[in-house]
Design goal:
Elements lengths: L3 E10 L6 E11 L4 E5 L6 H8 L7 E6 L2 E2 L4 H7 E4 L11 H11 L4 H14 L15 H11 L7 E5 L7 H18 L2 E6 L2 H7 L2 E6 L2 E6 L1 H6 L4 E7 L2 H12 L4 E7 L2 E6 L2 H10 L4 E8 L2 H9 L3 H4 L5
Parallel strand pairs: 3-8, 3-9, 6-7, 7-8
Antiparallel strand pairs: 1-2, 1-4, 4-5, 9-10, 11-13, 11-14, 12-13
Length: 319
């Protein structure tokens, strides 16, 4: 069983020379009861994927099923099974938090009594009870984002889509929101599909992730497994010249335990099982180091390995 199963999704905006190929055959499988992350820079195709899976957009090609229903043939059935929280706020700032939740539940066809009870429970779950009867527009940004997520849960969906849910929040608000979502997933079996460009968020929260770049999947797996595949340590060294960089790259590529070497002029970045030993080999060969660092492999290193560029430098790429 899959909470979501998509194969070969394609989507193009515009025509001719101005066409933007947002998705280029993207496929994914999401097991139920997990937090699944779509990770990529701005413009990678994450939001387009979520819009297709939540029936807000139609793919040009490919197929997708969510909660056992085809997104093209059974869109109403899909919508009944999902919650969707977009990047932009969805609450009424003039209404109170409680009123927002009750209204959302009523629009979902829930009786007034059940809607009132559901609103009360969600306010408790998200720690919003004390502010429940104040206008939501006067709440803090973190509280407003919690309200948006709670509104996506009023009808007890099987799958919850969160599109960049913590953009603009301070670290404390981000931590609080994700603690609540993690608890819900663990205790209710809710499947959460998260799109994010925060590497630490995907690393900490997701049991499985898909790294997307320019509309295509470049890597997939559990965060720890993807990092482990790189070989252990990430080593970055700055050398005195591009010639030294070339010498160092040739040396490292021949060493056992070195998985990947990337050179940019006098700067060298490598994945190795023994980062300290790698530095010792460079020094032993008489290659002078201007600066050096050794750190455990990160998702940024995973992205660099498979996409061919650092994650930060990819932000803003149109796709």
């Amino acid at each position: 069983m899959h909470a979501i199963l998509a194969t070969g999704l394609t989507k193009t905006y515009g025509r001719g020379a101005k066409a933007v190929h947002a998705l280029k055959g993207l496929s994914l499988q999401v097991p139920p009861g997990t937090v699944f992350a779509l990770l990529g820079p701005n413009g990678a195709g994450k939001s387009t994927t979520v819009k297709i899976l939540s029936t807000l957009s139609r793919p040009d090609g490919g197929t997708a099923e969510v909660a056992g229903h085809d997104v093209l043939r059974e869109p109403a059935a899909v919508r009944a099974k999902i919650g969707y929280v977009s990047q932009r706020p969805g609450f009424d700032p003039i209404a109170t938090g409680r009123e927002n939740l009750v209204l959302t539940a009523r629009l979902r066809g829930i009786s007034r009594r059940s809607a009132t009870r559901r609103a009360h429970d969600l306010l408790e779950t998200f720690g919003l009870s004390e502010a429940a009867d104040r206008q939501a527009g006067r709440w803090s940004g973190g509280m407003q984002r919690k309200l948006d997520v709670a509104m996506g849960l009023v009808h007890e969906p099987e799958v919850l889509f969160l599109d960049e849910p913590t953009t603009g929040l301070d670290p404390e608000a981000r931590t609080q929101l994700w603690a609540t979502v993690s608890t819900l997933t663990r205790t209710t079996g809710l499947t959460v599909v998260l799109t994010t460009h925060y590497l630490d968020e995907a690393d900490q929260m997701a049991g499985h992730l898909l790294i997307v770049d320019r509309g295509q999947v470049v890597a997939e797996g559990a965060p720890d497994a993807l990092k482990a595949d790189l070989g252990g340590d990430t080593v970055q060294v700055d050398l005195q010249s591009a010639d030294d960089g070339g010498r160092a790259a040739r040396l490292l590529e021949g060493l056992p335990g070195v998985v990947h070497v990337r050179r940019d002029g006098p700067r060298l970045r490598a994945q190795a099982r023994d980062g300290a030993g790698l530095l010792g080999s460079l020094q032993g060969a008489g290659i002078p180091l201007v600066a050096a660092s050794v750190a455990p492999a990160s998702l940024d290193d995973v992205y660099l390995r498979y996409a061919g560029r650092a994650f930060a430098s990819a932000e803003g790429v149109a796709a």
